[in-house]
Design goal:
Number of strands: 10
CATH class of the largest domain: Mainly Beta
Mean pLDDT: 80
Largest sheet: 8 strands, mixed, barrel
Length: about 250
C-alpha cells in the first residue's frame, strides 16, 4: 500500500509538472498551428495596370481650329426660331435598380449556414457583446454553433456587413469553422434567415489579420457576408491564436 501511495504521489507530481509546462508552451503539442488558408497558397491574378497615353495637339491642327472659329464669329448666323414644347416624362436612370430594391424582402437574422465545399451545415444563433472573466467586453461566441451579430453588424439580405463567427479548435465549445481555411475564391456560401429564406453568396477574399484588427467587422456600403474564426498558432500563455481568419463573400 505504501508503494502504491508513493507511486500515485509521483504520478500526480508528474502530471502537475506536465500541465505547467504545457501552459508555458514548452512540451510538444502545446503550441497548435492551424493550416494556412488554401486561397492564400495559390497565386492571385495580377492587377491590370492602366497605361496613360499622351495625345499631342499639333500646331497645324490648332491653327485650323482657330481660323475656322474666327470665320464663324465674323459671319453672324441667323438663328431660326425654335418651337417650344413640353419635354416628355422620363423615368429616372436608376428606375430598374429601385424596382429591384423595392421588390426584395426585408432582411432577416441568420439561423443556418451551409458551405458545400467543406461539407459544413450548421445552426446559427444570435450573439452580442458580453463580459469575459476579467470584466472585459468581448464578442460573444456560443458552443457548437456559428454566431451571427445581427443587431451589431448587419442582417442578411440588406446593404452592410453581416458578420458570422465560429470556433476552430476547442475542447468544450466545438469546432464549427474547423475547415474554413480550405475555402477558395468563388466557393458558394448559403445562409437561411429566420423566415426560411435562402441567400446565396460567393467567396471573394480570404485573409489573415491580427486579433486586434476589428476593421473587418466595420459597416460597409455594399452587401457582404464576413466569416470569422481563429488562425495561425495558439499561444498557451495568452490563451489565444496569433491570427484571425477572415472570409469575405458577396451576393451571387
Amino acid at each position: 500500500m505504501n508503494r502504491l501511495a508513493a507511486a500515485l504521489v509521483v504520478l500526480g507530481v508528474l502530471a502537475l509538472a506536465y500541465a505547467g509546462l504545457w501552459q508555458l508552451g514548452i512540451v510538444p503539442g502545446s503550441r497548435v498551428t492551424l493550416p494556412a488558408p488554401v486561397a492564400l497558397e495559390k497565386p492571385r491574378p495580377a492587377t491590370p495596370t492602366a497605361i496613360a497615353v499622351a495625345v499631342a495637339t499639333t500646331p497645324i491642327a490648332l491653327g485650323v481650329a482657330v481660323t475656322a472659329t474666327s470665320q464663324m464669329l465674323a459671319t453672324p448666323a441667323r438663328v431660326p426660331s425654335v418651337p417650344t414644347f413640353a419635354p416628355p416624362h422620363l423615368a429616372p436612370a436608376d428606375a430598374p435598380d429601385r424596382a429591384v430594391v423595392a421588390a426584395r424582402p426585408p432582411p432577416g437574422y441568420a439561423v443556418r449556414l451551409a458551405i458545400p465545399a467543406i461539407k459544413l451545415d450548421t445552426e446559427v444563433k444570435q450573439g452580442g457583446i458580453v463580459q469575459d472573466a476579467d470584466g472585459n467586453s468581448i464578442w460573444q461566441t456560443l458552443p457548437f454553433v456559428a454566431v451571427h451579430y445581427g443587431d451589431l453588424t448587419a442582417r442578411v439580405g440588406e446593404p452592410g456587413n453581416a458578420v458570422i463567427a465560429g470556433h476552430v479548435v476547442t475542447l468544450s465549445e466545438g469546432n464549427v469553422f474547423r475547415f474554413l481555411y480550405q475555402l477558395d475564391i468563388d466557393d458558394q456560401v448559403q445562409v437561411w434567415d429566420d423566415r426560411q429564406r435562402e441567400f446565396d453568396y460567393h467567396v471573394v477574399d480570404v485573409k489573415l489579420v491580427p486579433p486586434s484588427d476589428t476593421s473587418v467587422m466595420a459597416p460597409t456600403a455594399d452587401e457582404r457576408l464576413t466569416l470569422i474564426t481563429c488562425g495561425g498558432t495558439f499561444d498557451p500563455v495568452k490563451r489565444e491564436f496569433s491570427d484571425r481568419l477572415i472570409v469575405t463573400a458577396r451576393p451571387l
